[in-house]
Every structure is written in structure tokens, then in C-alpha cells.
Amino acid sequence: MSRDDGVPKTPPVRSRNPERTRAEILSVAVREFAEHGFHGARVERITKAAKCNARMIYHYFGGKEQLYLAVLDSVYAAIRNREGQLRFGTADPGLEARRLVEFTFDYFSENGDFLKLTRNENLLNGKYIKRSQMIRDMSQPFITAIGELVERGHASGQFARKPDPVQLYVTVVALSAHHLNNAATLGTVVGQDLTDPAWQAERRDHAVEVVLTYLGVETSE
Amino acid sequence: MSRDDGVPKTPPVRSRNPERTRAEILSVAVREFAEHGFHGARVERITKAAKCNARMIYHYFGGKEQLYLAVLDSVYAAIRNREGQLRFGTADPGLEARRLVEFTFDYFSENGDFLKLTRNENLLNGKYIKRSQMIRDMSQPFITAIGELVERGHASGQFARKPDPVQLYVTVVALSAHHLNNAATLGTVVGQDLTDPAWQAERRDHAVEVVLTYLGVETSE
DNA sequence: TAAATTAGTCAAAATATTTTTACTTAATTT
DNA sequence: AAATTAAGTAAAAATATTTTGACTAATTTA
């Protein structure tokens, strides 16, 4: 048998890669905080999934709180970035209104972590989002764009109503998000599986119809 | 001066009142779980607010989890009870549709803990609500009543559309709840205070208008 | 290439949180 | 009114969770 008294087991050869490690921690943390919320999230689970040591979280981010903050910033940057690509102002207002609903609906549907993170952040009363000036600034343009869309649609006579842009935006988001945010409780209450893709497809049509009907836009039959 | 060496300080005279203590713990726990969620809730804070000892939670409920379960059941029983008082089926369908939106909107607005608790329960993926057969059973009748309302409204020609009752219900709830559930993040994004009563009054009108317009009911101007 | 820096490991300390044990006494029952 | 039961207290044990200290080695820089 081999003897290696005094000699501790060979330390595994580690490749060093700061960017990769940092990015990996952040990406894993998005999932962990989305899935369990701030209080439910476990530092240990993050390190295991990121195949690194707890010490690294303190090394790269400073602690659990700061990591959470970095996570928030990163997901808001992602959605605002995609919204920016919509480039409203050129096409038919009725079509653009439809695109607004469809984009919002699909983004939430495809990027589940975003809603889960905001749901938790609201549980915390916005404790952390309030600290982020960046998020505030990034969001301004989109609301403005919706205001201009309403303006154009109404001026052209295509929209029967001229709602407050913020109310319209909140409605679009509500119709696109509530069934995802509350799939578990609502699903139990109505006795249906709201996570079923078929259910969600039906929901999408419904959301579009509600918004376009409200605006008074002809929904092509 | 009085001497009482060896004698530990006089234990305060306690009145005993099982019902009151149990009820007090439950009521305080509703607030605590609503405010902080399951993981964020602290047994110690509950005992302090209920002016009792941690031991009592184990005595009356069995533990933190069982207490949370009791809290869930109690708030669902409360809302289903109030809904039952709506007694649909007698008045004008257009008016009843309006009453449905207004009731839902107002209930959420006035009973903040309900939405906060469901928000957290959804964060936990419905782990606990799924265990409660009672909640499932209580909810059935209300969905049925909405189905009948749609049926009547459509048959009488008053509703232009005949939407799926579940979709309609989810929409009503979404329009009534989303701005409350997400006041912190949405408020930051749109740069307005969604908790302001004036804002919420505007929201109420908007929600009613969206739903009635969708149904094709004349909204009296 | 020697020195400095930074990525990374391991284990334990510090903290926070829930749960239980052991006990006291008020209320209820026999 | 003695015996029993249940409400209540205090304190500490058990557990869970985050954070830090002390160290090792890979990479970069002078």
C-alpha cells in the first residue's frame, strides 16, 4: 500500500479563469435568487452549482447582498436592451400596438427568471431596485415610446381611445405576467394547469384581443 | 429596603386565555408571513408581536410550517366568503360584470395581506396551497358563477363576446392585482408612486373600462 | 526569473434561527 | 380541595447559514 504520511492529499490542478468564474457565479445566482428569493437563496447551493468555493462570492461580489444586486441589474439590462430593438414609430400604430403586447408576453414567457426576480424584489418592497439608478434611467425611453405610439394612433384616428401611457403599459404587463407570477395559486383555484403551453397560447390570443379591443383597433378576423 | 435574596424576580401574574392567544398568534402571523414571506418571516418577531413565547407556536400549531399553512387557509376562506356574498345571476349582466371588476379590485386594495401571501406562495411554487383541499373546493363555485354570467350576457346580446370564463377571471384579477403585487418595481420603472390613492383610483377606472370594453358593454359616459 | 498579485481551497468562526427541555402555575375536573 | 390538565416562561440545545482567516498555487509584472 502507498504511504504518504504527513503529505496531504494532492491538491487538484486548477486552471484559473477570473472572467469565467465570475460570470458563472452570476449566472447561477440569477437562477438561485429567481427560484428561491433573496432569503430562500443559499450561498452554498450557488457555489455548488458554480463549482467554486463560497469564498469566491466574497472575493468577486463582496457578499450575498451585493451578488443579488448584480443579479437584478443584469436582468433589467437584458430586457431593456431587447425592448430597445422594437424601434417604434415607423409602422402602422395598430400593428405596433399588437407587437407591443406580443413582445411583452413572449419575453416574460421565454425569460422566466425576470418575473421571478421582480416578484421577489417586490416582496422585499423594492429594497434593492431603489438603489439602482441605472435601472431607473434605462426604463425611461420605453415609456416615452409608448406615449408616442398612443399619440400617433389617436391622431390617425385608428385608436378610438387615448389612454394614459402608464396605465396602458401596466395593463399590457399585467395581462402578460399575472398568470406566470401566480401560476401555482391561480392554477389551484381555477383547477387548470396554467403552465401548459396550450393554455398559455390561448392566454396570448386573449391578451392581444383585450388590449386591441380596448384601443378600438380592428382585430382582423 | 426590601430583601429577596435567592428569590428570583416575581413571575408576572398571567391571565390564561387559549382562544385569545391562538387567535392572536394567527393574526400576527398573517402580517408577518405577508410582509416577509415564509423564509423571511421570523418566529421571534411573531412571538414578540403576539406578546407570547415561542413555545406557544409549537404548542398551538406544531411549528413554523404548520402555522404558515393555517395562515393560508384563513385568508382564502375570508376572500371566498366575501365573494359568495356577490350573488350573481339576478341583475343586469353588464352591471354584474362591472360589479365583478370593482369587487375584485377593491378587495385586493383593502386586504393587502391576501396578495402578499399569494405572491410568496407562488414563489414557493405553491408548495403549501397544493396541500389544501379546502381551498380548491371553496373556489369552484365562483368560477362557475362567472361562466353563467358570460352565458347570460351573451345570450341577452349585451356582451359582444363570449370569452372563456377562466381567461376572463384571470384578466380581471390581473388588472386588479398586478400594480399592487409589483408596486415597487413598476413604480421605479415608470417613475410614479403606484401606492398613491389617486393613482389607484385612476387604475380602478381604467381596469373597469378595459374589461367592459372588451366584453362590448356600453360604458356609460 | 524573482516578486507581487490574484484566483482559489479548506476549515472553522461567527451569526442567526428554530426547536426542545425542564420547569411553573392557572384553570379545570373529580 | 386535591389531582390533573393545559397555558405559559425561560433558557439553552440543535440546526442552519453566512462570513472570515489562514493558507496554496497559478499567473502576471517588473
UniProtKB/TrEMBL annotation, chains A, B:
Ranges annotated as DNA-binding: 42-61
Cross-referenced InterPro entries: Homeodomain-like_sf (IPR009057), HTH-type_TetR-like_transc_reg (IPR050109), HTH_TetR (IPR001647), NicS_C (IPR041474), Tet_transcr_reg_TetR-rel_C_sf (IPR036271)
Pfam families, per the entry: TetR_C_29 (PF17938), TetR_N (PF00440)
Domain HTH tetR-type: 19-79
Swiss-Prot/TrEMBL keywords: DNA-binding
Protein's name according to its UniProt entry: TetR family transcriptional regulator
